[in-house]
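Annex B, item 7. Sequence and structure tokens for protein A, then protein B.
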Amino acid sequence: RAATDHSQGTSARNCTQCGNTETESFYPEGTVLRGGSNDPALVKDLQQMLVDQKYLQDTVDGIFGKNTEAAVKAFQAEHRLMEDGIGWPQTIQAVRSAANGEAIYETSSQPEQFDFYRDEAVYTLSQFRDIIKQQNELCAIAYLGAYEAEYPYLPTYLEVAGVSQKFPFFLEIPEEHFLTYEGSQLYCIVPAEKDALVTVNPWLLTEENDYLGEAGEAIYEGDSGDPIFVRGNVSDIMPNLQILIEDTDGRSVEYYPFMSLKDNMLELPNGGGVLDFTPYGSKLLSEYQGYDEETEKMDPGAPDTAIKGEDPGTLIGDWTADGVYTQMGEEYDGTLTFYGDSTLAFGSGKSREPYENYYTGRWTYREQGKEGSEYSGIVEMELTRTAESTAETKERIAGTYIILRYGEELISITRLEGEDLFPDQYWNDIRFTYAVG
């Protein structure tokens, strides 16, 4: 039979003055469809589009069950969207675009020309706004990692992360434009127009709204188009913020910032409107919290024992990690041993010793922590699996890692380049506790 006409998913209206017809989405703004969704009409429309595109071979019954979830997930995988089987607004729009034969703007790494960090160029706010406009976007957004400290520590964080040198206007954003909600994920939003309307709302997914999502009371409303910092999202892959931008021509974008599980980059709206200028690979993007020179301790976002980076020699010894969560839902333990002669040993497994995986190799500093720095440095490691290993795992682990110290007995190791230490580890940063000197 002929493919379904999905114009049923839209409504049309005629302007009484000019006579032009405008088409609006059938779905309410921010609609999220998942298991338990109780709006059969919306689910049926989504199911029919998936059937027509051969993702779903099931009855169009308006029930968001396991088969519909699997079909949504298959579509997301093919079009490089977050693969969770949930009908997020971006996913629904992509399914509709594909059903109507329209181009789909897949979420992926930003184009090479948008890599603002590849050279020494410095951008004023005016220059940066011009770039956003040249790309025909309404705003730019940067993910700046998990930041639990207060506003006074922010300038130091931005300097260590390497972004305030590139965008000096970051340091001119006042405290009243440092907006906070539940969570610790920090974003900077820069509207293209200085007169743009900017609204930031909590995005609520609750049992009361059947997990379809709805905007809460506004955290911020402004008409000056000023750049803002927004902190929220308990998890970097689950949005609880809604960003609305409207320019003076009436163009608008609705955006829910979060990181994609597909490529660990910002998930961008399929219809465009947002330019990503996240400093991917920044040395301290996900770990630095903020340092207090007077108390020689970090802000309460970090452990109370956190102190300045110490002599690199203090890394020498055994460091253990417990319950490292993997993408397969398993937990690993491990012991990493730094020796003074630059040799290295690492063991890991699903239980304590004897471990399943054993490696030996060498380590060296690419960059050591400087006086007054909040990190110990950047370490290069190269490990080879030994004959003691009983599990089938990779023969070699090699990479570059950031090491942060939280006192004398706790460090975190974050992969900057290369391979993870643990098999399919879920989080990029792993906490190790000092065991034996």
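Protein B:
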Amino acid sequence: SGKSVLAEMIARAAGGRRVKWARFVPNPGRYGEEAAREEAKDPLVFAKAAREALLAIPCQEVVVLDGPKSVEAIEFITYTLSRPALLLWVEAPSWLRQFILNTRRDPDDPFEEERAALFAARWEEIRRRALVVDLSSNDHRHALEALAAHGIFPRIPMESVPVLLDRGFVLGMLLHFTRDQPLRISINDIPCDWVFHVSYSDRFPRLRQDPQLQHIVHVIASAFRLVDDVLDESPTRRLRMGDRVEEIPAHWTVEGAWVAVMRAVAMLCAARNALAERGALEGFMEMMERVVRAVSVELEADRERRPLRPDEYALTLERESAFRVWVARMVGEDPEWAAREGVMDQMKNDRRALEARKGLEARRVAEIFSS
């Protein structure tokens, strides 16, 4: 459902650490059946191991315990360590859970039904006592208020909706899942209707000579647009449909910001893996890092509640130019021409956002123009 990613985000926001429950369960079995047998003999067997490990962590440091399986275990730890516990239950839409199960290929995923049956009663009890964070919703105000009561705030929160999402953390996710720990996902796993930004073959006609590369480029471009709309909190997205342009609701406003980001991560991993299979991965991570660096400049200015400086605004224009330079090199076009075109188009998009007064991008551009 994405709970481990959310747990990591909260741990970083709190300046604490994420501790995986699985580290206290040395022999879980194929889907947890061996662990359940151990707990039948002693319901607190793993909770006791967790308590011993947590004793070494200073009491003022926040610990995000990722994946405990029972209320009894949580209560034992919180009472014996004198630590308050805040329970969060993470839910994702069923189609996304199924997509993750079908594509991440973890060893225990084929036993999802058996695992669900084994832990159903325990999970229901945890859910009944927890604050529910529905990743398909943009309303997590109760969880945000509860975390804030303990001094835990997203470093760069979304401003327009009360969603438990740190926009700066999203950029780290993109790099982590494309560079450090790519998901085992194929480009063929990406549904066709996820790929909506398909105009790069117009800008780079040579892409049409290589249908697979063309598809990879369009997958990456669509993923970037999904993330861009979330980070800029843009409520709508312009799409070119042949000779006409349509304005549609941004995906995150319909399916939730977290789901849009998770969809984008899956798409970027699939594209990265397809490039690796072609032996064409060189330059991809450099492009990703340049794009992330350009967007980070904007988010840091948002965090500090100040306008972008002119030199910073110039750097943000790499969001588009870095990607186009990479595409140009892949198809043998002039990268300098692609860089200029990317800068000009990004500035045109900024002016359009300013005229439409759309999202945080409009505010940034207004501030830089006025200064």
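Comment on protein B: The first helix runs from residue 3 to 14.
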